[in-house]
């Protein structure tokens, strides 16, 4: 259900980029509780299965009833290994690792997502960024 919701939402309310990106998908169909079927419109786009596999799934129960097109600073619900712990718009963002992340033991994830906290500072001025790097304030 979330996969169908995501595709339809991105096609109708998402950035125009998505309409073009997924243009070769002619139909999506929910087969059962855990399966969906994508019907592709042509044979020329060999990357389309990979593109579909990279689609970030939006939880329907979270987004339904919200204005998807509205800009917000509310951190969205996600299913990744980190959550947003703090942010200062235009200045910094801090992520904290989720202790019981569902994918932590998957073979493809072994050895990844080790830091407990990841902090990014944003620099709008290259001179300030250069001086911060010289001062040891960040690694590049």
Describe this protein's structure.
26% of the residues lie in helices and 23% in strands. The strands form 2 sheets. It has a 3-stranded antiparallel beta sheet with strand order 3-4-5, with no helix packed on it. It has a two-stranded antiparallel ribbon with strand order 1-2. The protein has 2 domains: 2-63, no CATH class; 82-134, no CATH class. The mean pLDDT is 91. The radius of gyration is 19 Å and the shape is globular. It has helices at 2-12, 16-21, 48-53, 60-63, 126-134; strands at 25-32, 35-40, 82-88, 92-97, 117-121. The chain contains 5 helices and 5 strands; from the N terminus they run ααββααβββα. The termini are far apart. The chain is an alpha+beta fold.
The helix/strand series, from N terminus to C terminus, equals: HHEEHHEEEH
Separation of the first and last Cα atoms? 40 Å
What share of the residues does DSSP label as strand, in percent? 15-25%
Major β-sheet strand ordering: 3-4-5
Q: What's the rounded overall pLDDT mean?
A: 91
Taking the sheet with the most strands, its summary is:
3 strands, antiparallel
Class by helix and strand content? alpha+beta
Low-confidence sequence ranges: none
Global Rg: 19 Å
Global morphology: globular
Number of domains as seen in the coordinates: 2
